[in-house]
Amino acid sequence: MYSFDLVRPTSVADATAALKKKDAKALAGGQSLVAAMKLRLAQPRTLVDLSQLAELKGIKKDGNAVTIGALATHAEVAESSVVKAAIPALADLASGIGDRQVRNMGTLGGSIAHNDPTACYPAGLLALGATVRTNSRTIAADDFFTGMFETALKDGEIITSVSFPIPTQAAYVKFPNPASRFALVGVFVARAKDGVRVGVTGAAPCAFRSKPLEAALGRNFTADAAKATMIGASGLNGDLHASPEYRAHLIPVLAARAVTAAGTTR
After folding, report:
1. How much of the chain is in helix, strand and coil states, percent to nearest 5?
2. Is 10 inside a domain boundary?
3. pTM over 0.85
């Protein structure tokens, strides 16, 4: 590790001002950022600790949606009675992230701002049609994730909360790396009055919606329809863990399992 300045603002306004400093970086749970700093992959001069910002905390049902503060930890999402009652698939997703330490330290806002291509939350945001709220605007999930480790966030912009519309049926299934628990492929299927949305993570440089699966499941919301959907390998990740073709094979298989699981939840 190397020397840096640590700032602990007590308001979003103060945090925004602090992030205007050269090479300043927001610190939420730190599960990705601190590791990157140890490896010299990130070298901010100033860390802006957001942990004291009450405006970024809390979980509540807001009409036909669940609003989760950016600083909510994965464990808090997984254990929330509000989330379990309204969107149990989202609670299940959070319960499978990393290990106990990561779940107790890592945050929703930090995860989606980092946008690791194998992270679980992006698939959930895309499938549920979530809205990301920042200190200056709202961003639809479809517009938020723009590339590998890239988002629509501007310099100094802070995520304050995420609003998740409540689906009629939903489930998330992932094929985890046995060591890291990150998704080799993860598929979140959500069915609502306006149709079916399918978010995929781990398979490509950035999470994406699978339009072939959405079309197939929109016509016939069954596991068989998901299994019969062909997914091309072009543009998918290939590494020592899995080839693009294997990931392409996994997407409809996991989607079928998610459809089956969604039938036993809401």
Report:
1. 35, 25, 40
2. no
3. yes
